[in-house]
Design goal:
- This protein has 269 residues and is an alpha+beta fold.
- 45% of the residues lie in helices and 13% in strands.
- Strand 3 and strand 4 (149-155) form a beta hairpin.
Length: 269
């Protein structure tokens, strides 16, 4: 009888193992379910936290960030696996990291455009000098290239009598000839008038500001009305005695300061 009771007691021990197995299976399925339903907000917080801790959190987001590991996009963003030597499986054969913003290409393009603009302005400078020489327009007329365009400088004595803003007939011919070239280009043109620092006050002009402004405006008006230059491309500015190119303490210096500058502005690419 004792043997029989012992046998009956052991016959139900498998239930313990079975219940443990069922419990483990239930836990497994709960974990699988939890993993399959990721909380996006919590994931984003985790991703941001990891990004900050790894040194890529300056913009507060992983969007568009680059992996701190060499070679490719962040693994958190689904980038390629990082291989030895810093190359991604999706990188090119040269092993170089792709230039996401293509900044290098933009710089090359900008440099090319700047070079092209400088060459165009230099060609224009050569053409204007050739026109001045071939037509004997005057040795005092000079040209100068600068970063923003081309400056043609006319001494005011070539254009005007002293204290007067009426164009001389001899200079109208020069404007007619130069305007032929101006009509071949589409650049904007700024005409600036300058005087020396000797005060002027007569029945016509009350200041050097007025005298310089009227002289610049009369040059522009002649180009529009007589040389058919598009008025939308022209601007007239009176600068008075400001921005001298020589000392006003000498007669020679004052003569240089009294001038008209025709500035052909470089086109923006």
């Amino acid at each position: 009888m004792k043997m029989q009771k012992k046998h009956e007691g052991n016959s139900e021990r498998w239930l313990l193992t079975y219940s443990d197995l069922i419990t483990l299976l239930m836990i497994l399925f709960v974990l699988l379910y939890a993993i399959s339903n990721v909380n996006q907000d919590k994931y984003d917080k985790l991703a941001d936290s990891l990004s900050e801790s790894l040194g890529n959190g300056s913009n507060g987001s992983l969007s568009g960030s680059v992996s701190v590991l060499p070679g490719g996009l962040s693994v958190l963003l689904g980038g390629g696996d990082v291989l030895p030597g810093g190359n991604s499986e999706e990188s090119n054969d040269t092993g170089n990291t792709p230039d996401i913003n293509n900044e290098g290409g933009s710089n090359i393009t900008d440099q090319s455009q700047n070079t092209s603009t400088k060459e165009q302005m230099q060609d224009l400078n050569d053409d204007i000098n050739k026109i001045i020489t071939e037509n004997d327009l005057g040795k005092d007329i000079s040209t100068n290239n600068y970063e923003g365009g081309l400056v043609i400088t006319f001494p005011s004595s070539v254009f005007f009598d002293s204290g007067n803003a009426v164009l001389k007939d001899t200079m109208k011919r020069a404007l007619d000839i130069i305007a032929v070239k101006l009509n071949e280009i589409d650049n904007d043109i700024l005409v600036k008038g300058f005087t020396d620092n000797i005060p002027i006050k007569d029945s016509v002009f009350s200041s050097n500001w007025q005298l310089s402004a009227f002289r610049a405006a009369n040059v522009v008006q002649y180009l529009v009305e007589n040389a058919q230059v598009d008025g939308t491309r022209l601007m007239a500015v009176g600068c008075g005695e400001n921005d001298p190119v020589a000392s006003n303490d000498t007669v020679k210096g004052r003569n240089k300061n009294r001038r008209i500058e025709m500035i052909i502005l470089a086109n923006e690419n």
